[in-house]
Amino acid sequence: MPTTKAPSPRTKVRRLGGRGRYDQDTVHAILDAGLVGHMAFIQEDQPYAIPMLYARRERVLYLHGSRLSRLLKGAGGGIPVCFTVTLVDGLVLARSGFHHSVNYRSVVVLGRAGIVEGEAAKRLALDTIVDHIVPGRTTEARGPSTKELAATEVLALELDEASAKLRTGGPVDAPEDYALPVWAGEIPLHLTAGEPVPDARCAVPLPAYLERLVAARA
Amino acid sequence: MPTTKAPSPRTKVRRLGGRGRYDQDTVHAILDAGLVGHMAFIQEDQPYAIPMLYARRERVLYLHGSRLSRLLKGAGGGIPVCFTVTLVDGLVLARSGFHHSVNYRSVVVLGRAGIVEGEAAKRLALDTIVDHIVPGRTTEARGPSTKELAATEVLALELDEASAKLRTGGPVDAPEDYALPVWAGEIPLHLTAGEPVPDARCAVPLPAYLERLVAARA
């Protein structure tokens, strides 16, 4: 059941509209595949875009970021925000500079964010973020204390108004350019995980869920 | 000669201020290492963050994006914008959920963007972007025609007000948590290039500059 409004006048993809997607499955899949998004908000007539960690749970995005204190002055108070997640999948090299492109998947969410209140709700939101970044991590790491919860701010943004945009495949050149002696194609890009580096005081072997994470990002 | 204003009241890193950097070399190096940034701008009181390709030349960022038409209605006209580039370098796994983090490098640029006008200036800007994404590419690909230049909009944003923020290294746990039997350390992340995929009509062998790009992102 696609419950994302699809599309609103504000989220309708206007340029290269064939790349737009509005179904909930596509929007959720892109959000679930990303690690860091960018939150846009306005402060004193100046827009800012600030990187934040996030996770989706059902139709809510939980947001947590290192510049949260500046952000929270306004963003938690219900001002309009935009949260954008972009995954870069490859470089698209055409025979002309004009037709160069990038393969990507992106989601733009518009709305008003609220501060997550209450210990249980904050604990759920933070656990959701930790397990989004590192699936299985909350089974091992110590959960937040009451004091830590009080020191942490988390925002919630409902997925009511969202759109996805994506490009896949190789270059599309102008007909007359195919004769040019220019290499053309795609160079795939992936965010891959390197060998885990235990800290100096870690005596615990690498758990299975981290082996799986590294294998999934090989 | 660091000419970035360092820092302005608006770009001073407020939270975890020890992670802030304001010298031009750090700002430029992060911008030069990224591929896609996010442009924040305001339209009808709504902030947007839109992914864009970009490149730095001296103290100017050239910006080019697939949603440029919406953006250009305002952003090229000198309204305030923010352009943010974030590179994710690793997952930082502490023994407590609270101390989990991400290693990253980010730059925030504030200013007012202008539309690049004139064939020569547009050609330079576009070539700068192509060679930033794929160093050496403009030596091989066909450059833009007059008609293509006319159909392309590029923005310029001066690097007058910018700051960088970064985190490196392993987790820092609360003293009492080091005794916990929890794996702790860093999982490095890199944007790596896969095997280039020539398009169906490409009969040209992979050029040396693309072999170098793939090797540099191995």
What is the level-2 CATH architecture name of chain A? Roll
Class of chain A, according to the CATH hierarchy? Mainly Beta
Order of H and E elements of chain A: EHEEEHEEHHEEEEH
The coarse silhouette of chain A is: globular
Largest sheet of chain A: 6 strands, antiparallel, barrel
Q: CATH topology of chain A, what is it called?
A: Pnp Oxidase, Chain A
Structural class from helices and strands of chain A? alpha+beta
Work out the strand percent of chain A: 35-45%
Count all strands of chain A and give the number: 10
Count up the helices of chain A.
Answer: 5
Instruction: Tell me the number of structural domains of chain A.
Output: 1
Adjacency order of strands in the biggest sheet of chain A: 2-3-4-7-6-5
CATH homolog superfamily of chain A: Electron Transport, Fmn-binding Protein, Chain A
From the N-terminal CA to the C-terminal CA of chain A, the straight-line distance is: 34 Å
Radius of gyration from the alpha-carbon trace of chain A, in angstroms: 20 Å
Most extensive contact: A-B, 100 and 99 residues
Overall pLDDT metric of chain A? 91
Low-confidence stretches of chain A: none
Name the assembly state. homodimer
Portion of residues in helices of chain A? 10-25%
Description:
- 2 copies of one chain form a homodimer.
- Chain A has 218 residues and is of the alpha+beta class.
- Chain A has a single domain (17-174, 181-192), classed as Pnp Oxidase, Chain A.
- Chain A has helices at residues 24-33, 68-72, 119-133, 146-150, 208-216; strands spanning 20-21, 36-43, 46-57, 60-64, 77-93, 101-115, 155-158, 161-167, 185-193, 197-198.
- In chain A, strands 2-3-4-7-6-5 form a 6-stranded antiparallel barrel.
- Chain A is globular.
- Chain A starts with 19 loop residues before the first strand and ends with a helix.
- At the A-B interface, strand 2, strand 3, helix 2, strand 5 and strand 6 of A face strand 2, strand 3, helix 2, strand 5 and strand 6 of B.
- Strand 9 of chain A pairs antiparallel with strand 9 of chain B, so a sheet runs across the interface.
